[in-house]
Design goal:
The chain has about 425 residues and is an all-alpha fold. Helix content is about 80%, strand content about 0%. The chain has two domains: about 200 residues, Growth Hormone, Chain: A (Up-down Bundle), CATH 1.20.1250.20; about 200 residues, Up-down Bundle (Growth Hormone, Chain: A), CATH 1.20.1250. The protein is built from 16 helices and two strands. It has a two-stranded antiparallel sheet.
């Protein structure tokens, strides 16, 4: 474990400082996002008095900024990743704080949009920052550790909500303000993140493209689309099935979510190490088969304990997909393409996140609850077939291949020079 978290050169280096700052930001972001999400549904019900259809409308509205993320990234392409992340956290904090001003559906919509724009931006920039901390062969480990830290922040937040609302069941405004303050602290921390590439300091930020949609990265785009479709199906209807079909109460649902969070927190670093060791093709193919088992089991097993077990299983394997897709992209893309390509992946993911749950919700009016999960199995099966085609070495873009060849030539010249001096 010590080898997993230790940055290149040790903690006293710029990479070490960046590791700490990113960890602080990630912890704060995980806390603010998951704590606010935990109480939002009850806030909409108890304070803003939402009706059933309004929950569907606000969910669709919340996903729109994720779909438009590539436009935002293109407009701010000159801004460094750390400053863009800090700005996104400020926007996220403003959105959270604005919840206390809302009095109904339309008055909360602007704050939902701001908060969504902020957290969707952070979701892709933290991957780009994390991969800058280390060399390519250790990318999965770093992203896995950061995913675990996010889950740790979520766990602290959910625990705080549980105990606070036992005594003060209407403390919604104070929770949103606290989450906004924590998000701002995360923005302050990440603002000092150093300019790095491959874990080594740069004097100035690395330039990046305004927008990238390239055929060379097609497998990354396809994986993002399939991941978004499958993920939204499960998280739109997973807990709903436990409540409506199995009759679980709030305490039972809270326990399932907490167990899932602890499992994801504990195993996310391991997931990253597996991707580094085994490669994206083997790991993601196996994970998509596991998705089929988890989703199929969730649909077919009419037993509460087994359903909870499959829910936890899905939560355990979920971190693999975005980490594997990001490390695959890093291996085939030139550095300046990575951040806008990650943004494009989030945009494509949310294109399906907006459409698929709505279609599945309509289908539910005519069929059993099992059908959306079978559809999710279909997405996972297609993703498994796609991952079998992954070959980062052969699928590098022409620009990346040229960059690698130039680096290899420089290394060979340096080695030859050293041998000549030794002679």
């Amino acid at each position: 474990m010590r080898d997993v978290v230790r940055p290149l050169g040790g903690w006293s280096t710029p990479a070490g400082r960046g590791y700490i700052l990113l960890a602080v930001m990630t912890l704060a972001f995980g806390f603010a996002l998951n704590t606010s999400t935990t109480v939002t549904t009850n806030y909409f019900t108890d304070v803003l008095h939402f009706t059933g259809p309004q929950f569907g409308y606000i969910t669709a509205i919340r996903e729109v900024p994720g779909f438009l993320l590539i436009v935002v990234t293109a407009l701010l392409y000159r801004m460094s990743q750390q400053r863009l992340t800090a700005l996104a956290l400020v926007v996220f904090a403003v959105g959270l704080a604005g919840f206390v001003l809302a009095t109904g559906f339309w008055s909360v919509v602007p704050w939902v949009v701001l908060g969504s724009l902020g957290f969707h931006t952070v979701m892709q920039t933290q991957y780009a920052l994390g991969m800058n901390l280390t060399e390519e062969s250790r990318s999965g480990r770093v992203l896995g550790v950061m995913a675990g830290i996010t889950q740790a922040g979520a766990l602290v937040g959910m625990g705080a909500v549980f105990f606070v609302f036992l005594k003060w069941p209407q403390l919604y405004h104070e929770v949103f303000i606290a989450c906004a303050v924590i998000a701002l602290l995360g923005g302050v921390a990440i603002f000092g993140f150093p300019h790095l590439h491959e874990g080594r300091p740069l004097r100035v930020q690395m330039p990046r493209q305004r927008m990238v949609l390239a055929r060379d990265y097609r497998y990354y785009y396809v994986l993002s689309i399939l991941d978004g479709a499958r993920q939204q199906l499960f998280f739109s209807f997973g807990l709903w099935v436990l409540v409506s079909h199995f009759g679980m109460g709030v305490s039972g649902i809270s326990l399932v979510v907490i167990v899932s969070t602890v499992v994801a927190m504990a195993f996310s670093p391991w997931a990253g190490r597996m991707i580094d060791r085994r490669g994206e093709r083997w790991t993601l193919s196996a994970i998509n088969v596991a998705y089929i088992v988890a989703l199929g089991g969730y649909a077919l097993m009419d037993n509460l304990w087994l359903a909870c077990a499959f829910y936890v299983l899905y939560s355990f394997i979920a971190p693999f997909s975005p980490i594997g897709a990001a490390t695959y992209l890093r291996k085939i893309a030139v550095p300046q393409d990575i951040a806008p390509s990650l943004a494009m992946g989030v945009t494509l993911m949310h294109a399906t996140a907006i459409v698929v749950p709505v279609v599945a919700g309509v289908i539910l009016n005519f069929v059993g609850y099992q059908v959306p999960f079978f559809i999710g199995c279909g997405f996972a099966l297609v993703a498994a077939l796609v991952t079998l085609r992954l070959d980062p070495r052969r699928q590098r873009s022409a620009a990346r291949a040229a960059l690698d060849d130039a680096a290899a030539g420089a290394t060979a010249d340096e080695a030859a020079g050293c041998q000549a001096v030794g002679a």
